Amino acid sequence: MNALQALTERRTIRLFQQRPVADADLATVINAARVTSCASNRQPLRYIAIRTQPLVDQVLAETAWAALVAPKRTPVPGKTAPAAFIAIIAPADAKPITYADAGASIQSMQIAAWTLGLGCCWLGAIKRENLHNILNLAPEKQAIFLLAIGYPAEQPVSEDVAGDASIAYYLDDANRLHVPKIRLEDLVDWR
Amino acid sequence: MNALQALTERRTIRLFQQRPVADADLATVINAARVTSCASNRQPLRYIAIRTQPLVDQVLAETAWAALVAPKRTPVPGKTAPAAFIAIIAPADAKPITYADAGASIQSMQIAAWTLGLGCCWLGAIKRENLHNILNLAPEKQAIFLLAIGYPAEQPVSEDVAGDASIAYYLDDANRLHVPKIRLEDLVDWR
C-alpha cells in the first residue's frame, strides 16, 4: 500500500474479527516501531507482544475504550475483541520526551498494521498498576500505552470540519463511527 | 512509495540541498499529521509552516543538532540548511499525553515527507522562549517541537546491534552517519 494512502485512510478500529494475527505480521508491525525516530537515538522503549489466551482477555479487562460511544465500541471477549495487544514498555519515571517517542513508535505501528489489513486502537486509559502485575514487569518499568490489534470488523469514516465546529466523534443510525477532523486550512499558519 | 518501505528506509536528515520545498508538498506533509491518532480525538496541535527568509534562518539559530556529531551535522545557513521548518504548536501547559500526540503527528509527517523525496529532522533541543517571541505566539501556546524539512544532502545508514551494544551514532571516515538500532529480538517479549 502506498504510504500517503495508508497515512490518510487509516482509522482507529475498535471492533475486530475473531481471527488470529500471524506472529510474522506482529513482528513487521513492531519492527516499524523499532526504526522510528527517538530522542538522541536512546531507544528507551520495549515491547510485549500479547497474543495468547487467557492473557489477551486479562489485558482487555484493564482497558477503557472511547467514552463517547461506549458500550458500542467496547470490545467483547469472544465477539469483537482484538486478537492481540502490543504493550509499549517504558521507564516508570518516563519524562514527556519518552511519551513523544512512544507516540511516534505507535503511529509507525499503526501505519504498518494498516498496510497488512490490520486495524489498531491506541489505548491510554489503562489500569497501569494492574497491568504491571499481569505482565510481571520489573519495578522500574511501566506499560506506558497499549496498542490493540486485529482484523477490522468496522469501517469508521473521517469528516473534515471547521476549526470551531464540534470534534466529538459519534455513531450514526447504521452504527458507523464518524470522526470529525479539523480541516487543514484551520490548522496551519503559513509564514 | 510502499508504506512499509517508507517506514523502514526513512532516516533522519541533517544536511540539506539548497532547494525550496513546494507549499503543496508541505501541505501534504501537514495533512498527514492532521489525520493522525490523538487522545480522545481532541486535536490539540496546530502547525506553523515556516518557509520564507529570513524567518527560516532566525528559527535555525534557535536549534541544537545531534550533539555526538557536531558540528558536522549542524546545518549552515546558505550551505546545508533545511528549506523549511514546521513548528508544532501546543498548549503551554501540555501534559505528557500531548507530547505523545505530537510524537505521533511528527512521525506521520516524517513518513509523508520521505515519500515525497524529502528528509526531516525532529528537533527537541530548541530555545522555546526565543521561538515564542520570533513566532509571535499567544502566551498560552508553545512551540513544543520543530520539524526541519528539505531535500536530503546525506545518506545515513542504520545498522542492527545487540541490546547491550553501544547505540551511539557516529560518522565514518567518508562522513557518512551510522545509526545503531537495537535488533528486534532484543526489543520484544512474546507472550
Summarize the structure.
Two copies of one chain form a homodimer. With 191 residues, chain A is α+β, with helices and mostly antiparallel strands.
Distance between the termini of chain A: 33 Å
Largest interface: A-B, 72 and 72 residues
Strand content of chain A: 15-25%
Radius of gyration of chain A: 17 Å
Taken together, the total number of domains of chain A comes to 2
Name the quaternary structure. Answer: homodimer
Instruction: Count the beta strands of chain A.
Output: 8
Order of helices and strands of chain A: HHEHEHEHEEEEE
Say what the CATH topology of the largest domain in chain A is: NADH Oxidase
Q: How would you describe this protein?
A:
Two copies of one chain form a homodimer. By secondary structure, chain A is α+β, with helices and mostly antiparallel strands. Chain A has two domains: 3-155, NADH Oxidase, CATH 3.40.109.10; 156-191, putative fmn-dependent nitroreductase like fold (Single Sheet), CATH 2.20.180.10. Chain A contains five helices and eight strands. In chain A, the strands form two sheets. Chain A has a four-stranded antiparallel beta sheet, sandwiched between helices. In chain A, helix 2 packs across helix 4 (96-115). The longest helix of chain A is centred in the middle third of the chain and has 20 residues, at 96-115. Chain A is globular. The two termini of chain A are 33 Å apart. In chain A, 42% of the residues are buried. The model of chain A has no long low-confidence stretch (mean pLDDT 97). The interface between A and B is large, with 72 and 72 residues.
